[in-house]
Amino acid sequence: MSANKEIIEHQAIVRSVSGKSAQVEILVRSACSACHAKMLCSASDESRRIIDVVLESENQVEVGQTVNVYGSKSWGLIAVVLAYVVPLVLILAVLIISKACSIPDNVAGLASLGVLVPYFLVLYILRNRMGRSIVFKITK
Length: 140
What we know:
By secondary structure, this protein is an alpha+beta fold. It is built from four helices and five strands, in the order E-E-E-E-H-H-H-H-E. The mean pLDDT is 82.
């Protein structure tokens, strides 16, 4: 991790390169995955993620090379808000409004969950626009 608190940095392996972009694989580990007792504990977690990275020049990296990937921490916070906070607020708002209008519980519950369909549909439609804003870069 980086000492700068505004930047998130991970070590990654380059999987493919095309023009001024590359796909890199990051090994994401939980805080306890380095523990010597992780085989006995179910709390340890480890997963691999592939992300697209913008290159400064076309010959900056090669496939199989180990690099450092970094991005802005503020985009991580925005992603958390869009994925968790906004849906929770929508569910609670529709539920409270439904109950204030004396709508039966089962209809209020379905309406609360139903409001998420258009919300996530809009996020899905805007995924490319948001993807162009969230940029990861590479250093060797």
